[in-house]
Amino acid sequence: MHEELVGLLASRKGHFRLESGHHGDLWLDLELLCLRPRYIGRFAVELAKRLSTHNVEAVCGPLIEGAFVALMVAAELNVEFFYSERFAPAQSDALFPVEYRIPRALRGKVRGKRLAIVNDVINAGSAVRGTFTDVKACGAEPVAIGALLVLGSSASTFAADEHIALESIASLPNALWVPKDCPLCAARVPLTDAAGPAA
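^ that's the sequence the OP posted. Answer follows.
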């Protein structure tokens, strides 16, 4: 399953500024992941099976692509589905500047739920971290994080620090750098702002 999932991902190499503020040399075009939902559906079923051991009562995914996968997982588990919306500052050089918030109409509904946060791919974990912070502010109890693919070690470190489970279908090593330590900056490789608006 690992190789098949990775084969579905459209990737590019280069020098990218990610939503988290980190720099990296890998970019995945995740907008293409759910182009054919049937292809992803069986991976969502497997992820749901892994998350079912955590007795979740609801699933929450960050918009956009993460919420599509989260919706499939929630349907498979037959539990409630929630989503978080992205709120980005105009300009920030801080790490993890982007916030994710549950819409107002859903905030009271998530209170008290044992919740899994599900994303498509986790790299630095900006969307998962933002969603985690807000579902806790809403009174939910995050008990697991799920993803089709985990890149690098940021997600496992975050899950361990927060004492919650991490489930995924596949994982790959990946390098991330804070901007001041980025070897690609030092080599003057042109930077693409992957977190910015579409051109």
